[in-house]
Write a structure and sequence with these properties.
By secondary structure, this protein is α/β, with parallel strands linked by helices. Helices cover 42% and strands 15% of the residues. It contains twelve helices and ten strands. Strands 1-6-5-4-2-3 form a six-stranded parallel sheet, sandwiched between helices. The protein has a four-stranded antiparallel sheet with strand order 7-8-10-9.
């Protein structure tokens, strides 16, 4: 029977030889470059293969930790992105001498891991945190004991893989003194990034600036293929929460400025629609759209009635425009008086 590390430890609150060198221009997934890497692994009888979910930040960081583990021990290891768009076939991975194949942040297509283990007799170790994975677990019942799937709904894959390889490294090198996957300088920074990725993966959204973090992180999405980006692991090691939040905040600010810059067109559309509704309600055919501009409010007036002049109102408050389209700036206190009717009474 396969080993399931998902018992009701499926606990939930609610229930550099890692890449073979290839000639020519590198491409992704089941491309010539990827297949050449597998051919090289076959020639060298590479014993360890890591397939990581692509495109996924949890998958990419999991691959990073696998890379660091095997580099510490000077063990050959081939690491490849696995995409459902152009997936590998079982026969692609039937490498003579293959001992372990890791599926990180996914368990592979249905039956893929079991068939690979059957054909190669290698040990298959998979990590996932998605609830949808549970519906496929029964497919592996009765399979050989070389399958070990670790599914934890309370810990995302990258955190689980990080803990796994930290523990394995410590076990293996304990006789030669303590061993750490990350040095002290990198550990705190990388672990903080993992916490933020986990917060998003588990849909918790509890950490401060998590929205800004995810926006900043999204800029890396196109760089997660270690075939087309051979410097991926070096780059992941340099990522910090502080920098990603800063990038996310800057992006949000630029989007807000863009919205303000383009709001004249939006206010025109909304204002004219309100003008039509106002006339239909037997009111003056004027639509007013208000939004913040700096510390003040900008009032945009629109009318679809050719006999109505909105600029008359705008000029009273120091603004101007044409009869059908005008605007002015108004302070918040003036606006509050205006809508309550007190402003006209005090004139």
């Amino acid at each position: 029977m396969p080993h399931w590390n998902h018992s009701i430890s499926l606990t939930s609150k609610n229930s550099s030889r890692f890449l073979a060198r290839t000639s020519g221009r590198p491409q992704g997934f089941r491309s010539n470059a990827a297949l050449e890497s597998l051919t090289k692994a076959q020639e060298e009888r590479t014993q360890n293969v890591v397939l990581y979910n692509y495109p996924s930040f949890s998958g990419a960081f999991s691959a990073l930790f696998a890379h660091l583990f095997h580099r510490h021990l000077n063990l050959p290891c081939l690491i490849l992105p696995f995409s459902s768009v152009a997936p590998f076939r079982v026969e692609d991975l039937c490498i003579d001498g293959l001992e372990k194949c890791y599926f990180v942040d996914f368990l592979g297509p249905k039956g893929f891991a079991a068939e690979l283990s059957r054909r190669t007799s290698c040990q298959v170790i998979g990590f996932d945190h998605r609830r949808t994975t549970l519906s496929d677990i029964h497919l592996y019942e009765g399979c050989n004991s070389n399958l070990s799937f670790r599914v934890n709904l309370e810990k995302n894959s990258s955190s689980a893989v990080y803990d796994y390889f930290c523990a394995k490294l410590s076990e293996i090198k304990c006789n030669n003194g303590p061993a750490r996957l990350l040095n002290t300088e990198d550990q705190e920074r990388v672990e903080m990034v993992l916490k933020y990725i986990e917060d998003g993966d588990l849909r918790l959204w509890t950490l401060p600036d998590i929205k800004e973090f995810n926006i900043g992180l999204s800029n890396w999405l196109s760089k997660l293929n270690c075939i087309t980006n051979p410097h991926l692991f070096e780059q992941l090691m340099k990522i910090s929460v502080k920098n990603l939040v800063a990038h996310g905040s800057a992006y949000m600010a630029s989007q807000q400025r863009s919205w303000i810059d383009g709001s004249s067109n939006l206010s025109d559309i909304i204002g004219k629609e309100l003008s039509i509704k106002s006339e239909a309600a037997s009111l003056r055919p004027i639509g007013a759209v208000i939004y913040m501009q700096g510390k003040n409010l900008k009032m945009c007036l629109r009318s679809t009635d050719s006999c109505t002049d909105t600029s008359v109102i705008a000029k009273v408050y120091g603004g101007g425009g044409s009869p059908s389209s005008s605007s002015f700036i108004i302070r918040m206190d003036e606006y509050n008086q205006w809508i309550s009717g007190k402003f006209s009474q005090n004139k």
